[in-house]
UniProtKB/TrEMBL annotation:
<keyword id="KW-0949">S-adenosyl-L-methionine</keyword>
<keyword id="KW-0472">Membrane</keyword>
<comment type="similarity">
    <text>Belongs to the ANT/ATPSC lysine N-methyltransferase family.</text>
</comment>
<dbReference type="GO" id="GO:0016279">
    <property type="term" value="F:protein-lysine N-methyltransferase activity"/>
</dbReference>
<dbReference type="GO" id="GO:1905706">
    <property type="term" value="P:regulation of mitochondrial ATP synthesis coupled proton transport"/>
</dbReference>
<feature type="transmembrane region" description="Helical">
    <location>
        <begin position="29"/>
        <end position="53"/>
    </location>
</feature>
<keyword id="KW-1133">Transmembrane helix</keyword>
<keyword id="KW-0489">Methyltransferase</keyword>
<dbReference type="GO" id="GO:1904058">
    <property type="term" value="P:positive regulation of sensory perception of pain"/>
</dbReference>
<dbReference type="InterPro" id="IPR029063">
    <property type="entry name" value="SAM-dependent_MTases_sf"/>
</dbReference>
<protein>
    <recommendedName>
        <fullName>ATP synthase subunit C lysine N-methyltransferase</fullName>
    </recommendedName>
</protein>
<keyword id="KW-0812">Transmembrane</keyword>
<dbReference type="GO" id="GO:0032259">
    <property type="term" value="P:methylation"/>
</dbReference>
<dbReference type="InterPro" id="IPR026170">
    <property type="entry name" value="FAM173A/B"/>
</dbReference>
<keyword id="KW-0808">Transferase</keyword>
<dbReference type="GO" id="GO:0031966">
    <property type="term" value="C:mitochondrial membrane"/>
</dbReference>
<keyword id="KW-0496">Mitochondrion</keyword>
């Protein structure tokens, strides 16, 4: 057989080999693309789910950070106070961190772990990590009995339940500050700011005496009444 004949015979085999290589390369690329896409979707879900979850609860309390004026109003009405402070649903930690900078031993309770990790990082960066603590917790499943200053930026649908919970847990020396939405039956001793930045201050002595004058409503939503320890 001539040299030309040998060359012509090996051409289909070479072609076949390069087709197989190309196919292998394409399927490897497919696996990588699927892996990256799947991984990205899982990561996106892991980040977004905690932000969406509050909207799916019976009482929807979404992450809406306090405005600068709101934070200033909270600190303004508490300027004569000291000791422990808790922000219920602490979001990105801005109230807790600002309170720590004003000398409070400040804690936050927050359902969304990303916001809690971010708050801890921010407290560290801003040098107040020793006077702050952030807990991943459901506000209905922990007690606030140890706090003498309580801040809540809630929604109207939860305020009546929270009135009962705080009235039964807090010491009579405590003060409670409600941001944007007041408590429905308590009478505030003071207010500050206006519009969406308004804050209302309540004295525990007053609202606890209210409680003693006969009310027996339930303090936790029916679907969330198992006690829980916090991290
Ligand atoms: C209106 S934001 C207030 C954030 C923060 N206190 C501030 O003023 O900037 C309410 C926060 O409560 C959190 N939250 C919602 N349901 C909660 C629950 N059951 N327990 C604890 N935190 C909750 C939300 O994730 C959100 O960050």
């Amino acid at each position: 057989m001539s040299q030309e004949g040998i060359f012509l015979d090996s051409a289909p085999a070479d072609q076949l080999q390069s087709d197989v290589k190309e196919k292998k390369g394409r399927s490897r690329l497919g696996v990588i693309v699927t892996g990256v896409l799947g991984g990205s979707l899982v990561a996106l879900y892991a980040v977004a789910a905690p932000f969406v979850a509050p909207a799916l609860r019976k009482v929807c309390l979404p992450f809406v950070p306090a405005t600068t004026a709101q934070v200033e109003n909270v600190l303004g009405v508490l300027r004569a106070r000291s000791g422990t402070l808790v922000d219920i649903g602490s979001g990105d930690g801005r109230i807790v961190i600002a309170a720590a900078k004003h000398g409070f031993q400040a804690s936050g309770f927050e359902l969304n772990p990303w916001l809690v990790w971010y708050s801890r990082y921010k407290a560290l960066r801003e040098g107040v990590h020793r006077s702050t603590a952030f807990h991943i917790s459901d506000l209905w499943k922990v007690s606030f009995a140890q706090y003498s200053n309580v801040v809540i930026f809630g929604v109207p649908q939860m305020m009546d339940q929270l009135e009962l919970k705080l009235a039964s847990e807090l010491p009579s020396t405590a003060k409670v500050v409600a941001c944007r939405f007041p408590f429905p039956t308590w009478v505030p001793e003071n207010t500050a700011g206006e519009g969406i930045d308004t804050v209302w201050v309540y004295d525990a002595k007053a609202f606890k005496s209210h409680l003693q004058h006969g009310m027996t409503r339930k303090t936790t939503p029916e679907h969330e009444d198992t006690p829980e320890s916090h991290t």
